[in-house]
Amino acid sequence: MSRSPVSRRDFLKVAGVAGAGLTVGACRNASAIPAEATRAAAPPTPTKEPTATATDTPAPLTPTSEPTATPAPVAQAETHTAADMAAASPAQAGNAWEEMDRMHEEGVKIFLDGIDPTNGFWGTPLEYREEDGVKIFEMTCQEVDWEVEPGKTVPAMTYNGIVPGPEIRVTEGDTVRIIVHNEMSQSTGVHWHGVIVPNNMDGVPFITQPPIRPGETFVYEFTTRNSGSHMYHSHHNALEQVSKGMIGAFIIEPADKSKEPAYDADYVLIMNDVGIGLTLNGKSFPYTQPIVAKLGDTFRVRYMNEGVMIHPMHLHGLEQLVIAKDGWPLPQPYYCDTVNVAPGERYDVIVKAHTPGAWAFHCHILSHAESAHGMFGMVTAVVVQE
Amino acid sequence: MSRSPVSRRDFLKVAGVAGAGLTVGACRNASAIPAEATRAAAPPTPTKEPTATATDTPAPLTPTSEPTATPAPVAQAETHTAADMAAASPAQAGNAWEEMDRMHEEGVKIFLDGIDPTNGFWGTPLEYREEDGVKIFEMTCQEVDWEVEPGKTVPAMTYNGIVPGPEIRVTEGDTVRIIVHNEMSQSTGVHWHGVIVPNNMDGVPFITQPPIRPGETFVYEFTTRNSGSHMYHSHHNALEQVSKGMIGAFIIEPADKSKEPAYDADYVLIMNDVGIGLTLNGKSFPYTQPIVAKLGDTFRVRYMNEGVMIHPMHLHGLEQLVIAKDGWPLPQPYYCDTVNVAPGERYDVIVKAHTPGAWAFHCHILSHAESAHGMFGMVTAVVVQE
Amino acid sequence: MSRSPVSRRDFLKVAGVAGAGLTVGACRNASAIPAEATRAAAPPTPTKEPTATATDTPAPLTPTSEPTATPAPVAQAETHTAADMAAASPAQAGNAWEEMDRMHEEGVKIFLDGIDPTNGFWGTPLEYREEDGVKIFEMTCQEVDWEVEPGKTVPAMTYNGIVPGPEIRVTEGDTVRIIVHNEMSQSTGVHWHGVIVPNNMDGVPFITQPPIRPGETFVYEFTTRNSGSHMYHSHHNALEQVSKGMIGAFIIEPADKSKEPAYDADYVLIMNDVGIGLTLNGKSFPYTQPIVAKLGDTFRVRYMNEGVMIHPMHLHGLEQLVIAKDGWPLPQPYYCDTVNVAPGERYDVIVKAHTPGAWAFHCHILSHAESAHGMFGMVTAVVVQE
Question: Is the pTM of this model over 0.80?
Fold first, then answer.
């Protein structure tokens, strides 16, 4: 098995969260926050600089929501289209704000109700067989209809019928053979983005190999040398093929893990935009899945941008320690809350789940994350359970 | 008072500059540079690597502007529209270049003539009262018409009627209570971007709290733990609300300032784009304000991007030492002249005012800063006075 | 001569490459890779962490291209337009994929056949004369038709008739005098982007000098103080003038080179986009030129973004060590494979040519690099010769 058992174990905890407190009440005054998070929060322990006074005095939590007026009368109750809502000025649109709130709430409710550790959002390992010390993987390039969200299916170009393609995870020094079948109606080639390979394994048709034509098979084989968070994707008619889904993670674990940071779970987050739309791991909010962590645990996120736009990923409430860029360890990790990932870049971060609750986690280009209809696109969450 | 007295003191020096030499002469050969800057410039003292030969030999300053020909005849004198100017090819457009120059000059003249330390461009502190050791702030969400520049008023959504909203500045370990009244015609929620808070204070409607509906009040309360340059903004219908102005600085001074760099003044620069247009601190050039510094002084700039585009901020003549990202001190500060700030990011820089004069300071995406009509949008300056 | 002899020497090796194995065969099964690279590749020596097992076991290179089916019949043979190709769905477009492949191959063939060390792609030094210890340069601003690629000529605004303008390269501490003649039909001004200068030499019309009107000459003079990879460009009507080509490199070698990394060749790569189109050093693929390096050699690339968009430059197969930003040495260099360069930024990287072959090198915003017609725009390559 190429996938770390740690993240699998972690998935199993989610059911408890969904059952415990993450359903959204029908009453508008009810908060969607987990029951346990409404108690006085445990003092967070930011890893930057311990400050005795700050951590010794947890904030009293006394939110008050005091309705003081009844706003505009309800004149019309039909559902508005997105265009209507965006255009609606307050004066024109009677109860537009109530409809807007309803739609915002609906999205969050779908997201929280839909937590499902089995749906494959956090990656599908590509199985392999081993022969003579070579790990042998097999992939088929296929055109499929991909469901970005229920009711929104897009024509996709894929590895093994899924977006992103299955995750390849090996150890530095492993020799891999990857057999690629092209069942699509156009040629392709697979580039191992970030992986140091011999030139004729680099996957650029007409420069390092002939294209893999429809119906053909090409075999890539190389010994992995540089550990880190890498990617694989098409390098032929790539604007179309990559945008439409021919993307996947190629993770090389270091042979010597003694220099790796410790963490309890490991997540890959692949961004895409123009082809299949604004997505995280091939899905659009509210049909993305959260990271679920136990209070005090630490997790790693591997950002990979396969789109054509930058995506500055902002995590609420929990700082991110950036430890690697493009798979290469940073000599000097640094903290932040927003990681700006450009096309082709990868960043690895470590997050300590020091404060319980449901933390929004999204691209901070707001047009990639929220409309008058509520959050959409490149949005997910980190749920920290006590 | 939550605002540092240092920057106030600094503002007072501006009048002298405006009076001394910063007015643009009518004669086209007259330079707009301050009189003192036309003398042999003092050798700059770049903080990188002192180089004896470079600093010991100030450059002789002998610019010569030698008109050698009279260009194209003046055929038409009416004012061109922006579209006209952009499209005008030299052959077609008789005196287009003279009109272009006139517009360029006019903008600079308005900017320099308009230096006014009292106009609030560099921030309005949010006053507070203290009860039982809690600093209590109050803000009202309001829809107003906001004047981006004289004659250009846009429908804005604001905190306390201004864009950006008033600056909150506290000290690490302070407990704050922020009472938010919503007088707008749609719901809202306030997210304390970058501030570590208990989950139910995070400001994301339907995830961590109910929305603050029109007419309602919500009370946020938490103890600040992570110092740095943070922000607050709407997290409900945020593309519209943030773009239209629901943005502000939330600065947490460190409890232990001994590790802070020394500086004489402190400036917050908030970028915005799609909603109210390309603006710095809610204003468009030439109606922005410069930073005015005394030769030899050091100042801090806290960049905050609340727009949906990157804004690489380029400062002429004076290098920037980047000391923090998203409020977190960088373990290894670095020098540069262009700081690329993505949406949601903040960067803190330290600048030594080592060379006198008026230095352009602008977003280097040129379509955010200059047209055929001259500079506009995300442009300001640093004026270093001898 | 202001240009390092090292890069000239390097250019001379290219002829051998072009002659040896870089021509693309007519047979579709023939690879474009150099003959020597199809042998078992020499083990790469990544500079990060030597891994004995990885480097001792070169991967066996056994690609197999096995056509197993004949795809869609050929119904139409005429050349498609770009729009046709982009829109062509496989079902609609009979032999569209074969035509697509043909166009992809054609571009690569033009690129490889066109390797020409004499064509000026990698820069034209601006010659100077020396008087009384001052290095005197002369430039003329000219409107010309610039050939981005054969058959695609755009109206450009230039220094000395070329895009980018000629490279200025001096040594820290040098006093330079740059005489700028304006022969264009509009005014201009030259900003020395990143170079620390006295204010009245900063090149911003109406702020630091009068504009240089058509027919006029302006003389800039200053002593260089901060070494590094800087730029010069127009700062008047700059969106038009810079976009259309008024850009160039201004490189200041450090007076004390003992702290510089060692390298065998030095390349400047200037990006541009909206005015003359998506270009590297003023040319669009396949009319760009590769970097040609000898196996084991080290080269430096100085990225300079003069466009209005980010350009994350991805190099295949060879890691990049980022050593400087905006001309300032980074206190802590870091490895990566994709350098995201924002407008106005410069990054210097060092690359070790540790693996032979032709490595694609391109902006990873795929819409800047590839269409259904094949690669175009911001694409070049690094060719490592054994």
Answer: yes
